Amino acid sequence: MTIRPPSSRHRPGPRRRGRGPPPGRSSACTSTICRRGPTRRPERFAQWVDPRSPVDDERLLTDVSLYWLTGTAASSARLARETPRGVEPCPVPVGVAVFPYDITHSVRPLAERLYDIRHWTEFERGGHFAAMEVPAELAADIRRFFSARALPA
Fold first, then answer.
1. CA distance from start to end of the chain
2. CA distance 61 to 42
3. Residues sharing a CB contact under 8 Å with residue 114, sequence separation 6 or more, in sequence order
4. Where do the structural domains in the chain lie, given as residue ranges?
5. Contact between residue 29 and residue 68 where contact means Cβ atoms under 8 Å apart
6. Neighbours of 104 (CB within 10 A)
7. Is the Cα dihedral 29, 31, 36, 37 positive or negative?
8. Looking at the whole model, is its pTM more than 0.85?
9. Which of 47, 84, 145, 152 lies in disulfide reach of 95, CB 3.0 to 4.6 Å?
10. b/e string for 45-68 if b means 16 or more Cβ within 10 A?
11. Residue by residue, what is the 3-state secondary structure of the chain?
12. Under a CB-based contact definition with an 8 Å cutoff, are residues 128 and 101 in contact?
């Protein structure tokens, strides 16, 4: 059996229909929710969120359940799969929200080489699940980005 890193599972290739719910009910959330780390938070989730985050187990289970019950887990991974690996510049105005506990960290000088960065915000709190962790701050930042680009009436 060959063990591949997670990123290789999302490599570019022909699009296939996403799998439905996994065969066992508990396997839908085992790797993200059920394995507990030393902080009593789910192990992988704990690595991807700000430790000060108010997200409780019920909210996390609700979020994962929505993906599982609607069969949309595969489509949610499309961004990782379809992200271009080349160096072709993107001319569309881009807003970037940087969270200290995200799984990847953005470096502005590198991002500016390929993207037309018009809005860059570095948050003091938040992680990979920013919409759950700091929803008001994220929503306000998104509004600021689009308000500055609104067409005159």
1. 60
2. 11
3. 87, 88, 89, 90
4. 24-80, 84-147
5. yes
6. 8
7. negative
8. no
9. 145
10. bbebbbeebebeeeebeebbeebb
11. CCCCCHHHHHCCCCCCCCCCCCCCHHHHCHHHHHCECCCCCEHHHHHHCCCCCCCCHHHHHHHHHHHHHHCCHHHHCHHHHHCCCCCCCEEEEEEEEECCECCCCCCHHHHHHHEEEEEEEECCCCECCHHHHCHHHHHHHHHHHHHCCCCCC
12. yes
Q: For 58-94, how does the pLDDT look when each residue is reduced to its tens digit (9 = 90+)? A: 888 888 888 888 888 777 777 666 766 666 788 889 9
Both tokens of 31, joined, read 């790797």
